[in-house]
Every structure is written in structure tokens, then in C-alpha cells.
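#lab-general

N.A. 3:47 PM
ok so I finally got the sequence cleaned up, no stray characters, all 310 residues accounted for. can someone with queue access submit it? mine expired

B.Y. 3:52 PM
send it over

N.A. 3:53 PM
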Amino acid sequence: MADLVYDTATALSQGRRDRQEDAVVADFQAGAGHGFAVLSDGMGGHAGGDVASKIVVTEVFAELKLRSGDPAALETGMTPVLVEAAKGANACLAHYAESDPARKGMGATLLAPVILGRKLYWVSVGDSPLFLLRDGRLRRLNADHSMAARLDQLVAAGKINSETARRHPDRACVTSVLAGRAIAEIDCPAQPLTLRPRDIVVAASDGLLSMELKALERSLCAHADSPAAQIAQHLLAEVAALGQAEQDNLAFCVIRVLPPLVPVAMEPPENLQLQHAPRKSFRRRKTTMVAAAQHQNGQLHFHSLSKRSL
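B.Y. 4:20 PM
back already:
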């Protein structure tokens, strides 16, 4: 089964804060059939959040880049590799904080989706969401390590009312983060999600959540056939249009899943003799060139030429 093709784009936008505490990078080589993205959101209430996010992205990206040279071996040990990458970034934060007391208490989230062929793996720590748009429906794939998620669970269980949950003073707090200490929770499923053509995956910092999920769903559906770069531009514009005074920094990666590139043989016209075997080209549609020709005075003369796409 041929691998799918991935069209990707990253976006980074500074909100109302003085510092850019988000960082994102992606590595999808054209035609490779695999790739990954790494995103981190420095915690606003922690000293050095801007530095923390860059350390996390740098450490995890370097580890995955090193491993991506052998996709088969990477897939065999995917879960431990992703978990160890998170722990390695966490240890690096601890070392940096120890060497610079002014950075003590710095922390950051981590979200790293990895695609191998048709399989989507991920590791996440914190509240940065990983979304999947499929068949016009948007859903979150990864766990939400935040007080907001826990409070919403209490509302669903009937233990508190929605107004209490909405006004809770700790609602914005995360329950797991990379901060150089023991990591409370890591989301890294052993079983991957199988991707389909026309899926759209969005890895984002929580700044994207300034859009309501239904609005985000409508935007992605409206531009689903556009290149990933255009989808990213639309999302940035729509967040900016909300005009929120306390808009958080924003970083995200858009990954469009396209049908595989299948080798298709060009069919020679019935009346045209070729001396060489037909070449193969990679096309999503099968195109047949139809020509009518005849020999006259030792030369080949074309009467008509048409193209038919299937």
C-alpha cells in the first residue's frame, strides 16, 4: 500500500505578551512518506518560559531527527523513544535551571506528532491540543493535562455545576508540565491512529483555543482543499479578528493528508509506434494522450491530438 503524501505548514504569532513563549518546528521531506513536528508552549506563570519552550523543541527535535533516518527501527520502538525524548528534554530543563538560578521554576508543554506512512503517533505533556478533522468533524486526539479538563469532567459527572467550573480560580492551571521535576502525566499511546486521505491534523499551543471549537471546525472545513500554508494564514487571521485583549501567544502546525502518488504508465496512441518503452510518471489522475497520425513520404504527420483524464 502506497504511503500517503503530507502537505504541512507551521505558524507562529505573538499575542499581547511581551515575550514569545511558544516554539514550533516541523520536518516533513517531500516524498518521504514520514515526518514529525515538535511544539512547546512556555508556561506564562513560570520564569524563563520563552527559554524553556525553545529548549524542549530543540532537544526533542534533535532526538527525533536522529532516529528518523531509520523509520522501520523508529516504529519498532516508537513509544519508548517518544517517552525518553520527553524525559530527556525535562532533564535538560533541570540542568539549565540549576546552572542559572534566575531560571528556576521554568516550564513548558510538549506536543510532538510523528507520522510514519499512514500511522500517526504522538507524545504530549500539558494542555497543547492535537486535533483531527475527519469527514467534517473536529476532535481532540491527545489528553488535556489541565485543571479545565478535570473540572469539565466533574461537571459531566454531575458533581459541580458548569458555572462553578467556569469561574474556578485554578481553571487555567496545567496538571502536568516539563519543568525539570518528575513528570506527572505523559500521553503517548502505544497504538497509532491510522490516517486517511483528506484528514487534517493540527498540533497547536493553547492560544488557538481562543477560537471556539465549532468555529475552528468550520474554518478547517471551509478551507480543507487549500494548501496547508493558506489554512495556516486563515487561522491566524481569524484569531486576530477576535480582538481579544488578553490573546495568548500562538503556534501551530497544519498537516494535510493527501492521496498517495501512484506511478501511472502513459499509454501510447494506437496509431503511433514507439521505439522505447513508455515512461512512468507520478500522477494522481490517469491521463491518456490520444493522437491520430499517418506516414507520408517517409515522415510522420499528426492529424489531431487530445488528452483524456480519468
